[in-house]
Amino acid sequence: MDRTTLEVALGQLDPTDDEHWTADGAPKLAVLSDLVGEPVTRSLVTKEFPLFTRDTTSEPEPEPEDLFDLVDQAEAHLNECRSIVDAAQENLTKAQTSYGAALKARDDAYPPMTNSDNIRAYLNQQQKDRESRGSNSIRDISYLQKAPIDRAFVTNKNRAAHRPVHPRNQG
After folding, report:
1. How many CA atoms, within 13 angstroms, populate the side-chain half-sphere of residue 124?
2. Cα separation of 107 and 67, whole Å?
3. CB of 153 closer than 8 Å to CB of 163
């Protein structure tokens, strides 16, 4: 049996059909023998195609002279991938520089506030809110100057006459 006949028979094996393969992924000799038309031995298959398994059925066995071409192709592909990585690295560096410049511009325009600055801004805003709520009427101003208990009695005139008096102050 010549190598070409065996190669054609191996190419006819279906990688999805479990009946064509042994448990370790080698081709079944009975199926190969049926395809070739004569008995096939394991030593013949491994001698002619030592790397052939169920996983490599879609890839034909390379000829020894093709191995140099495969190495050249792999090297070309490797160089192409390296150039892509170099370009990506350059783009990453540019993006990081741009990001840093944008952060600096933002921080220059809006400097970060310290804790004391935040407290001062809050207190100033509270003061403005109190001033805006304040009314121009004298009653409201006098109301704000009274003690909390006096303010409570002012809101209900009926109870203001019956203001509690401490026993010490009773006469």
Report:
1. 6
2. 59
3. yes
Q: What value, to the nearest 5°, has the Cα angle with vertex 37 and ends 31 and 40?
A: 60
pLDDT < 70 regions, the chain: 58-64, 134-146, 151-166, 169-171
The residue with tokens 């992924």 is 25
Whether pTM > 0.70 for this model: the answer is no
Q: State phi, psi for 17 to the nearest 5 degrees.
A: -95, 115
Residue pair 20/14 in contact by the 8 Å Cβ criterion? yes
Contacts for 44 with CB less than 8 Å, ≥ 6 apart = 1, 6
Rg (CA), the chain: 46
Backbone angles phi, psi at 103, to 5 degrees: -60, -45
Strands, E assignment, 71-158: none
